[in-house]
Design brief:
Blueprint lengths: L4 H12 L2 H7 L4 H15 L4 E4 L2 E4 L1 H27 L5 E7 L7 H12 L3 E7 L2 H9 L5 E5 L7 E9 L2 E5 L12 H5 L4 E3 L4 H12 L8 E3 L2 H11 L3 E3 L12 E5 L8 E8 L6 H22 L1
Parallel strand pairs: 3-4, 3-5, 8-9
Antiparallel strand pairs: 1-2, 5-12, 6-12, 7-10, 7-11
Length: 303
């Protein structure tokens, strides 16, 4: 695969924004890297980098070249995985960008289940907000995205979707814990910790609050749902999360209550991939497994 090395160098330069830094990252001398890039541009017939006082960046032609390389690399990976399947041993690598709620329970179980049948497959799981996950699909950094309330959905091909109600997380002795369903106004009038604006849960809360001429005004704002689950214990405030990321603790210290659909309609947890991309076998089959697991989970909570 020597012919792909130049493309790897181009990608490294684009990522580093500097020929010298990229040379260090790729364990090559800066002069050798510059010669490789210049030779490629001469053969290609156009410059692909804009030279700047502080470094370099891809120009529009370079963006097209990098997209071509990433698509080619993906296609090659797909063919390699198909060949491995022909030999009776599934191999490959599956990369996923996902919401935090999937990390504690859902994804560990599904990855372990898949690897029990296909130990030759490796995984990378990256916690991303809803915009980052979609961007990584477009750049081929992730094969799959499993996110709550995606942002754009332009190049996002939906594989499966299930609804998720925003739940209130609180201590069992909190005054609101006695209610089976909560109104949004009661939640907003109660001291609370909330996720930051880039997360789907907060997006839904802010939108619903504005309709009721209120604001989400957290005492603590965070990018960590783990922090939310733990913080409510210490100050006896309430927090917010979707149910797929929650489990009743053995000691009964926490309870979870849904916010009424009259105030806050369900959001969507969506499994997707980049539109038009043919995934490698390992990723495509894992997507099928995830879709089935999501379907079963949704059926279980509705039964």
């Amino acid at each position: 695969m020597r012919h792909l090395q130049t493309f790897r160098l181009i990608e490294a330069v684009a990522r580093a924004g500097s020929m010298r830094k990229a040379a260090g990252d790729m364990n090559i001398t800066a002069s050798a890297l510059v010669r490789r890039i210049n030779r490629f541009e001469a053969e290609f017939g156009a410059e692909i980098f804009e030279r700047l006082p502080g470094g370099v960046r891809l120009n529009p032609a370079g963006e097209l070249v990098l997209h071509h390389y990433r698509a080619t690399r993906s296609d090659l990976s797909r063919v390699q995985s198909q060949v491995a399947d022909l030999a009776g041993e599934r191999r490959g690598h599956v990369s996923i960008g996902c919401s935090q709620a999937l990390i504690p329970y859902f994804l560990p179980r599904e990855i372990a289940k898949y690897r029990a049948e296909h130990p030759g497959v490796t995984f990378s799981v990256n916690v991303r907000d809803r915009a980052q996950a979609e961007q990584e699909l477009a750049s081929y950094s992730s094969d799959l995205a499993l996110v709550f309330e995606p942002v754009y959905l332009v190049d996002f091909e939906v594989v499966h979707v299930i609804p998720q109600a925003v739940n209130v997380v609180m201590r069992a002795d909190h005054p609101l814990a006695a209610k089976k369903e909560l109104r949004l106004r009661d939640c907003l009038d109660t001291p609370h910790i909330a996720p930051s604006a880039k997360y789907g849960v907060r997006h839904l809360l802010d939108f619903a609050a504005r309709r009721g001429t209120r604001n989400v005004s957290p005492l603590v704002e965070t990018e960590s749902f783990e922090l939310i689950r733990h913080y409510v214990i210490h100050e006896n405030v309430i927090g917010f999360q979707i149910p797929i990321g929650l489990r009743d603790p053995a000691d009964g210290s926490l309870v979870f209550r849904p916010i009424s659909e009259r105030d806050l309609p369900d959001g969507n947890l969506i499994l997707g991939q980049m539109r038009g991309r043919a995934l490698p076998v390992a990723s495509a089959r894992f997507a099928m497994q995830l879709a089935t697991a999501l379907k079963d989970y949704d059926a279980s909570i509705r039964s």
